[in-house]
Amino acid sequence: MPADRLLPTTEAEDLLALTRELAREELAPLAAEYEEAERFPREQFRLLGKSGLLGLPYPERWGGGDVPYEVYLQVLEEIASAWMSVGVGLSVHTMSCFALAHHGTEAQRERWLPAMLGGDLLGAYALSESHAGSDAAALSTRARREGDAYLVTGAKAWITHGGQADFYTTMVRTSDDGGTGISCLLVDRDTPGLSAAPPERKMGLTASTTTQLLFDNARVDADRLLGEEGAGLRIALESLNSGRLGIAACSVGLAQAALDEAVAYAKQRTQFGSPIIEFQGVEFLLADMAAAVESARATYLEAARRRDRGLPFQRQASIAKLVATDAAMKVTTDAVQVLGGAGYTRDFPVERYMREAKVPQIFEGTNQIQRLVIARALRTA
Ligand SMILES: Cc1cc2nc3c(=O)[nH]c(=O)nc-3n(C[C@H](O)[C@H](O)[C@H](O)COP(=O)(O)OP(=O)(O)OC[C@H]3O[C@@H](n4cnc5c(N)ncnc54)[C@H](O)[C@@H]3O)c2cc1C
């Protein structure tokens, strides 16, 4: 059942209608096959680009869609509902454009942003390292200035779109000053000395490639520094505030898909002479799932509306990410329960949804880290 949305304008309604059609016709039919084959959906990202969906929340003058976050996130939710790996990929791409769009110089934006937002290129965001996950400030990939370039050496871990992306928004260490010794470079995929390790073998999101990125004296032109030297961690965390809203929206989309499957199954499956949806034990489970989906959606929309109005939204973004990803884990698990034995097989998508729901509780700051952000805001309020 399509989510019942209150959209701010008729243009937004049209955009959502177009997205739903694209998701239903072009994405949903391929999801199970690509996930099973661990095949990266590069063509589908090109299609999103051609449809103008790869730069939605950025200004039109650089090829973006100029839509409010409130609308962009609902587009993302619809895409994730059809295919979570593509939704997460769109969210990561959008986040990878943040540093240039918000911290690049005018000349840098003119030069690179239209291609990044306009459709054919795909981005990645490279912060984590094997020893620096939750503690991102401990990262050690080193960029040493030599003339008009940085020579970068080290390894980034867990990079979504590793080896597939056209550009990598990469946080590197330019001095030993802890969190203020980190800088942000826009690294081109063809940079000499840059390579990707073989993809990680994951529990879910298997069509979304995740790899280590290896820098071996990789030469990055100094004019690819975004923001000041030393501003990289601040830029990375700012990007994550917005990115977490994307992960929240994707998780709501996934939970909605699981709820829809569960309701459809419960209406047609009979036991003891009745459709199982008529048993209170099942219908209350479905009611709780619907309540979790709608309250998580309301939570991310509230944070997005604050962002759209220029209000602080960091705490609300962490709450949205925590609430929505926990909701998706619970709702997808309950969907498997509603389908009984069938839910545990690959004949139905709910077992995949359940596997896909786990990682949003981990990436872009684990849910423990979201609690730290929320608790810190309470302490300092
Ligand atoms: C599929 C996938 C895709 C990813 N994509 C990207 C990407 O595109 N770009 C990128 O930069 N990174 C990416 N990541 C990395 C991701 O953001 C990290 O995995 C995450 O931040 C956690 O880091 P970690 O795995 O090192 O866990 P750790 O930091 O080692 O945490 C282990 C456990 O300890 C807990 N913990 C740690 N510190 C604290 C604390 N202070 N208080 C309480 N609990 C704590 C954590 O919550 C967790 O439960 C991805 C990860 C995965 C799995």
TrEMBL record:
Signal peptide: which range, if any? Answer: none
Q: Which GO terms describe its molecular function?
A: acyl-CoA dehydrogenase activity; flavin adenine dinucleotide binding
Query: What are the Acyl-CoA dehydrogenase/oxidase C-terminal domain coordinates in residue numbering?
Result: 230-378
Required cofactor(s):
FAD
Q: Which InterPro entries match?
A: Acyl-CoA_DH_CS (IPR006089), Acyl-CoA_Oxase/DH_mid-dom (IPR006091), Acyl-CoA_Oxase/DH_mid-dom_sf (IPR046373), AcylCo_DH-like_C (IPR036250), AcylCo_DH/oxidase_C (IPR009075), AcylCoA_DH/ox_N (IPR013786), AcylCoA_DH/ox_N_sf (IPR037069), AcylCoA_DH/oxidase_NM_dom_sf (IPR009100)
| PANTHER family xref list | ACYL-COA DEHYDROGENASE, ISOVALERYL-COA DEHYDROGENASE, MITOCHONDRIAL-RELATED
- This chain belongs to which protein, by name? Acyl-CoA dehydrogenase
- Species, as recorded: Prauserella muralis
